[in-house]
Amino acid sequence: MKKIFSSPKKAIIFVVCVVAVLGAISITAVKSTLISKEDAKEAALRDAGLSETEASALRTRLEFEDGRFQYEVDFYSNGVAYEYQIQAKDGDIIARDMEGGANNDVYGQELQQGTSKQSAADEERSVPPQETTEQRSLEDGDASAQSQRAVGASPSAEGNTGAQSQGKSLEEAKAAALTDAGLAEANVTFKKTELDHERGMQVYDIEFYTADAEYDYKINASDGTVVEKSVEAFLRQTHAADGSANADDNYIGVDRAKEIALNHANLKESDVRFAKAKLENDDGSVEYEIEFYFERAEYGYTIDAVSGNIIEYDVDYD
């Protein structure tokens, strides 16, 4: 009798393929039982006491975390950044974060099986986003802590490295980020401005947003140079006359996506080394992921496959 598999290796490959197919079918079946993105968005807005017209930069995406599907819903209103985690199975609110404005007293509320709790990460972020490390130290009356954290503090007797006396101030760091982004302070809302320690150096972690995008900068506290930056555009989905989302399979192509990224970075293809350039489907959104290196910098771009718009980009200086 002829053997089904000519070798154990082929038998193993067959089993792996069967398991993969069954897994894909299982995930598809589970997703069919979940609430829609629209339902998740409405649940978050209802909890925040807002209408959709009162919220800007509204984003909803499906994710799989802690063994379950959940929707991440983010939006802004009246200077407050809202972040919700919605149970994709039944629409229950898993967690909510509010940062900025007058709602900081309720920042970091989390719900889990009917019990309210606050995570350690929320406690660390419970200070209003525009309050600097120096301001917190002064309000607490702790002059020694302020002198250790402020730019210009000298190294301690124990040998801890502080910022140099010629270092940049927080305002200078904010100005450096805004200049790099080509924006005026009057046109942005700051979400986070604080002094941090990263890669053996002191850096200012500066986050701000406009109506169109969210910006995240790391500025060297010593000389004010940009160490790292990322920009994420807020997508605005267009709709047809009947209210349904427009579908268009006329993709721009990977070569055009690479060209768009290089033009934005003001570089030539001959100057860079590409690490990644491919089409990907991110929860229903078709995008080109482009990554390349130029000298000591790593560039990463996410480009809409239909419109060619830059959804997100970041530059990491080694």
TrEMBL record:
<protein>
    <recommendedName>
        <fullName>PepSY domain-containing protein</fullName>
    </recommendedName>
</protein>
<dbReference type="InterPro" id="IPR025711">
    <property type="entry name" value="PepSY"/>
</dbReference>
<feature type="domain" description="PepSY">
    <location>
        <begin position="252"/>
        <end position="313"/>
    </location>
</feature>
<dbReference type="Pfam" id="PF03413">
    <property type="entry name" value="PepSY"/>
</dbReference>
<feature type="region of interest" description="Disordered">
    <location>
        <begin position="111"/>
        <end position="173"/>
    </location>
</feature>
<feature type="compositionally biased region" description="Polar residues">
    <location>
        <begin position="157"/>
        <end position="168"/>
    </location>
</feature>
<feature type="domain" description="PepSY">
    <location>
        <begin position="35"/>
        <end position="95"/>
    </location>
</feature>
<feature type="domain" description="PepSY">
    <location>
        <begin position="169"/>
        <end position="228"/>
    </location>
</feature>
